[in-house]
Amino acid sequence: MSRIVHFGTRFRRAADRLGVVPGSARGRIVGKMIGALAEAEALPGPGDTLALLPPTGEAFVRRVPGRNLWIWYRAERDALYLAHLSSDPPVPLVE
Q: Pairing state of beta strands 79-86 and 4-7?
């Protein structure tokens, strides 16, 4: 499975602010995680967390291994929408 990746404005701004730039160590590891999300057979994955992402609603969140970085995303069968990137862990949405 391969999804088309869409980078939201909020994600791009946060990546710049957090120093996640192409060619950097952070950029490579975040890129690798985005690739894994895009290629995943099923999303959300077992370790993903559903959290509130104001003001747009809910998003799933996956931690970047070995980093204090969190990728906030929404997924459809053929698309991956990257909503946000944060250095703060999400507060899980309790249902």
A: parallel
pLDDT means over runs of 10, the chain (95 residues): 94 96 92 97 94 91 95 96 96 80
DSSP state of 14: H
The angle subtended at Cα 73 by Cα 71 and Cα 74, nearest 5°, is: 170
- CA dist., res. 88 & res. 75, Å (int): 21
In order, the DSSP letters of 34-76 are HHHHHH-SSSS-TT-EEEEETTTEEEEEEEPTTSS-EEEEEE-
Q: pTM for this one?
A: 0.93
